[in-house]
TrEMBL record:
PANTHER family tied to this protein: SUPEROXIDE DISMUTASE 2 (PTHR11404), SUPEROXIDE DISMUTASE [MN], MITOCHONDRIAL (PTHR11404:SF6)
The organism of origin for this protein: Oceanobacillus indicireducens
UniProt keyword Zinc present: no
EC number(s) stated in the UniProt entry for this protein: 1.15.1.1
Name assigned to this protein: superoxide dismutase
Record flagged with keyword Metal-binding: yes
Occurrences of domain Manganese/iron superoxide dismutase N-terminal (ranges): 82-160
Domain Manganese/iron superoxide dismutase C-terminal: 167-269
EC supergroup of this enzyme: oxidoreductase
Molecular function via GO: metal ion binding; superoxide dismutase activity
InterPro entries reported in the protein's UniProt record: Fe/Mn_Superoxide_Dismutase (IPR050265), Mn/Fe_SOD (IPR001189), Mn/Fe_SOD_BS (IPR019833), Mn/Fe_SOD_C (IPR019832), Mn/Fe_SOD_N (IPR019831), Mn/Fe_SOD_N_sf (IPR036324), SOD_C_sf (IPR036314)
PROSITE patterns listed in its UniProt record: SOD_MN
Assigned keywords, A-Z: Metal-binding, Oxidoreductase
Top-level division of the source organism's lineage: Bacteria
């Protein structure tokens, strides 16, 4: 299982390497990425423990953030080239709370479909000319698939096999300040998740206008524009996210999910979001 995951990381690293070669980046930055790439190669040859695998993934994320900061002025925004991000853990890592079968289908089939749909929509919107009727269709496709891609990308990172089960640091303080207590927030978020009719999400968001936390459901995301709220913690309530394992027991799925929330990730998202003020 870890080997499959390492191969996905290696592919990610190779893709980034191709981009790096086309840019004029400082040698030190290129070398740092090279060292990380070598570490993956070594892990592929010698094997690696799950915990070390997660660390490797986190290092890759950090490096990529650093790379995109260094290259901000060098490359223009590009469209229609989104790729499926690898999961930050193996497909069976969240068991027994979420089964390997669900994770595999959810990531490889459903999320991939959003990525493909977004690339297609962007190609039509940014690289072709359309009459208003057709343009409206592709804009809806962009909203639907773009929101799906973003929400799933956050959702994967919001989970971990090593959950602390309760929030800490700033996110704990903010939850206590805005909702009174973690128990009160958990109850509110759970109720929102259970209230979702059909496909949709429950979400904890950062509101940069009022500088506070907000809980909401995101239904019919092709009609919702995530304009000013920044997702910190999201829970996929589409049937594909739980049905194979939990059938119609939506509440059991939500209850199990609380055991795998990555509060460290939620806290880091809050710290980054707090810099954005209207
Ligand atoms: Fe999903």
């Amino acid at each position: 299982m870890n080997e499959l995951y390492l191969q996905a990381l290696k592919k990610w690293s190779d893709d980034v390497k191709k981009t790096i070669q086309m840019e004029d980046l400082p040698e030190e930055t290129i070398n740092t990425w090279g060292n990380w790439d070598e570490e993956i190669q070594a892990s592929l040859e010698n094997g690696v423990e799950q915990e070390q695998l997660i660390k490797l993934h986190q290092q890759g994320e950090e490096l990529q953030r650093h790379l995109s900061d260094s290259s901000k002025e060098l490359i223009r925004a590009d469209y229609a080239n989104h790729v499926l991000p690898p999961l930050p853990y193996a497909y069976d890592a969240l068991e027994p709370y979420i089964s390997e079968e669900i994770m595999r289908l959810h990531h490889l089939v459903h999320h991939q479909a959003y990525v493909n749909g977004l690339n297609k929509a962007e190609e039509e919107i940014y690289y072709r000319n359309h009459e208003p009727d057709m343009l409206r269709h592709w804009l809806r496709e962009q909203a639907f698939n773009g929101s799906g891609h973003l929400l799933h990308s956050v959702f994967w990172k919001n989970m971990t096999p090593y959950s602390s089960k309760v929030p800490s640091k700033q996110i704990e303080q903010w939850i206590n300040r805005d909702f009174g207590s973690f128990a009160h927030f958990k109850e509110g978020f759970t109720n929102v998740a259970k209230s979702v009719q059909g496909p949709g999400w429950a979400a904890l968001l950062y509101d940069p206008v009022n500088h506070r936390l907000v809980i909401e459901s995101i239904e019919k995301h092709q009609q919702n524009h995530l304009v000013s709220m920044i997702p910190l913690l999201v829970l996929d309530m589409w049937e594909h996210a739980y049905y194979l394992q939990y059938k119609t027991e939506k509440a059991d799925y939500v209850e199990a999910w609380w055991n795998i929330v990555d509060w460290e990730d939620v806290n880091n998202r809050l710290l980054r979001a707090m810099n954005i003020r209207d």
